[in-house]
Amino acid sequence: MAEDTNPLQELLVDQLKDLYSAENQIIKALPKMAKNASNPELRSAFEQHLEETRGHAQRLEEIADELDISLRGKKCKGAEGLIEEGKELIDEDFEDDVLDAGLIGAAQKVEHYEIAAYGTARTHANLLGLKKVAKLLQQTLDEEAKTDKKLTQLAESIVNVEALQEA
User: Fold this and answer.
1) Which residues have CB under 8 Å from 125's CB, separation 6+?
2) Would the pLDDT of 127 be above 90?
3) What DSSP character marks residue 157?
4) What is the pLDDT of residues 56-114, one digit of tens each?
5) Which domains can be identified in the chain, with CATH numbers?
6) Whole-Å CA distances, 10 to 2, 121, 127, 133, 151
7) pTM
8) Is pLDDT at 1 greater than 70 in this prediction?
9) Given this model, what pLDDT does residue 163 score?
10) Measuring CA to CA, which residue among 154, 150, 45, 40 is closest to residue 101?
């Protein structure tokens, strides 16, 4: 990146590094979430999202190439904390159906964090006239929103109902 970088572009680069760290942390966390999900549809949703998340990281690498930047060197503390909450949930002694309901909640916290972060980065890219970058960020934003909606449907139609029956 050039020395005369716009401060908003510096912020965008910082956001992209944060997102890249988040995606890589999520790639490491999703297999454990899938393994601990007892509902086969939920397990499948986590496994499918793992593949999507790998694509999100690759898309961020494409953006880094476009901007001629490195995405290394930053740890996303927001994702780290949300993932840690999910790990703590797994360590609790919940019945399977109740754990599934909790896993959906933990996953949605991560999704909402990402939706906010990708939306902000996309807006900044648009303001900076980085149309290709904004388009790539929007693609991921759309996928994150779709995953969130899928988790909500799974929770409302099956998992939360089954968890309630544990009471």
Assistant:
1) 12, 131, 133, 134, 137
2) yes
3) I
4) 999 999 999 999 999 999 999 999 999 999 999 999 989 999 999 999 999 999 999 99
5) 7-165 (1.20.1260.10)
6) 11, 11, 13, 14, 34
7) 0.92
8) no
9) 73
10) 154
Per-residue model confidence (pLDDT) at position 165: 79
Token reading at 55: 């694509």
Which of 75, 70, 84 has its CA nearest to residue 23?
A: 75
Residue 101 belongs to what H/E stretch?
A: helix 96-127
Q: Name residue 93's amino acid.
A: D
The token pair that represents 92 in the structure block: 């609790």
Q: How many CB atoms lie within 10 A of CB 49?
A: 25
Tokens of 62: 């494409």
Locate 8 and state its tokens. 């908003």
